[in-house]
Amino acid sequence: MQIQIDHLMPIPLQDKFRQRPSDIWNQEITFKPGNFVKIKAPSGTGKTTLVHYLYHIRYDYTGKVQVNGKPWQAYSKNEIAAMRQQEVSIVFQDLRLFEQLSAQENIELKRVMLPNPYCTPERIQEMATRLNVTHVLQQSSKTLSYGERQRIAIIRALVQPFQWLLMDEPFSHLDQENAQRAAALIADECKARNAGFILTDLDNDQHFQYDVHYHL
Amino acid sequence: MRPFFDLLKKIIQTGVGKSRFFMASIGLGIAMLLILIAIQAHINFSQLLYSSKNQNETADFLVLNKKITNAMMGQPAKSTFTPEEIINIKKQPFVQAFGLVTSSQYKVVIQAPGDLHFATDMFFESVPDSFLDVKDADWKWQEGDRTIPIILPSDFLNLYNFGFSLSQDLPQISQETVKALPLQVSISNNIVAEQYLGHVVGFSDRISSFLVPASFMTWANGKYGTAVTTGTSRVIIKTPDPSNPTLVKFLDDNGYTTNQDKLKFSKTRMIVQTIVSVVGFFGFILLFFALLVFSMFIQLVITSCKHEIQLLVMLGTAPKQLQRYLLKQFVPLYIIIGIISLLILAALQYWAASVLAKHEMVVTPWPGVLVFAGIGLILALVYAVNLFTVNKYVNREA
């Protein structure tokens, strides 16, 4: 799966970015498959907006987001759903777990969304162990701390097949040690799939061996 | 899909407005039942009418004539059928056989022998033999015969026996005696008068007239008749179903009349058909409202889970999957309702069949094929409406 952006510009931020240069906005960029991409930007410059554009859940832009050579708009809802199940996965900044489900069920939901799940239930246990969240799996996600929710959201993004993983400040609620563990797990899972990721964050970090850096 | 749907059940609550859903289910059940009853009643009715088991001689003979109105009095020509009218009657789909009733163009006087003191002015008519309900070897005449076979209406003898003879202190006469009586028949026109012997060979319930063989009628009309031939004022038809409403309508439209008693059943039939249609109509109205409530219920479920559905789709759930899930929540219920109404109908039909059997009317104790087709169609309609609603609202939220 190839993701390209072509003179992408958020309509609400249009005036702001006409004044100052950006590596992303209003540029032509092709994200190379398998690349680890870091996008660094201060608050309020559209990190989340960009991730939502790339994932096609926000549409207020000019320019194009092309997926496999076609703009998102050319795909039907069912086709997009198939891509979200098989080719592109996401960790939202605001996590977006179902509060009426337990932590485990939130992960399981994503796993069994595919008629033939990509990984086994045991694999979820292993990943939970690596991220130190085994003890909260049975709890309602309502009762979890932000840090725990963030790790559940990361595991949820990793139980499906993907070629691209989009992450929006995925370690914002984690301490250095837990962030390191999560990054290692993500790197392993991406390697196992030959997949790349696009990660947005506020600062520089050493969590991954990034192939490309952009400043938003 | 199973484990995924189990999780969806926790996210998409279909429990909102359960009592409304319950009422709509009952409404749907009643609607289905009414429609099925209407179909089944229709099947039963046509079975009673046409099935060979219930055939108490449905084919019937009707003698048609024009209604005599005050305006027509004194103008006999107005009561005769024109050739065009005769052609028109012949080509009606309910006319199986058609015959003219030929009337005599001469005067007839009949006298009973001996001192029975019975003499009367009369007339003769004839119809083709195939329309007669009297079969007798003596029913034939050829030129030269002095004996004329005659068929009398049964009512005529009854009038005499139970009306006239009792009041006049005369003896009552059996059919056999009448058949044995040699009647003196005097046939005349204004010029000649000749005597014949009349022999009653039978009594007709079908045709209320004094009948002679067609061969005699032709000959006698030629011999004694006036040159001006009068037109046909009565015709006889054979019809498979005298209760056929189109037949009744045809007669009314053209101002024809016949033995009304034979048409009575037609009114009953129309009343039954009307009731059945009304029942079916209300069934459809109820079905319509049940469908409306179900659609609104589905809309309510989907809008109340709007955010959940949006997040599910965001995570990659296909609208197709959601639609399948939602349909799975409702459709089995419809099928159960359909089966229950079918069972109730089967029980009703069994009961109706046993009640009718006591009156020697045979209907099958099982629901007809049309009923199964009907329930299939209704379920298909309900499914289609649900599919449409689910697709519409899921696509709106997704």
Automatic annotation (TrEMBL), chain A:
Q: Which domain of life does the protein's organism represent?
A: Bacteria
Note one Pfam family from the annotation. ABC_tran
Q: Where is the ABC transporter domain?
A: 3-214
Which InterPro entries does its entry note?
Answer: ABC_transporter-like_ATP-bd (IPR003439), ABC_transporter-like_CS (IPR017871), P-loop_NTPase (IPR027417)
Q: GO terms for molecular function, please?
A: ATP binding; ATP hydrolysis activity
Keywords of this entry: ATP-binding, Nucleotide-binding, Translocase
Q: Provide the protein name.
A: Putative ABC transport system ATP-binding protein
Taxonomic placement:
Bacteria, Pseudomonadati, Bacteroidota, Chitinophagia, Chitinophagales
Automatic annotation (TrEMBL), chain B:
InterPro entries, alphabetized:
ABC3_permease_C
The record gives the membrane topology as: Multi-pass membrane protein
What keywords are assigned to this protein?
A: Cell membrane, Membrane, Transmembrane, Transmembrane helix
> What positions does the domain ABC3 transporter permease C-terminal occupy?
281-387
Record's GO cellular component terms = plasma membrane
Asked whether the UniProt record includes ATP-binding among its keywords, one would answer no
Transmembrane intervals = 21-43, 275-302, 330-353, 365-388
UniProt keyword Transmembrane, yes or no: yes
Q: Where in the cell is it found?
A: Cell membrane
What name does the UniProt record give this protein? Answer: ABC3 transporter permease C-terminal domain-containing protein
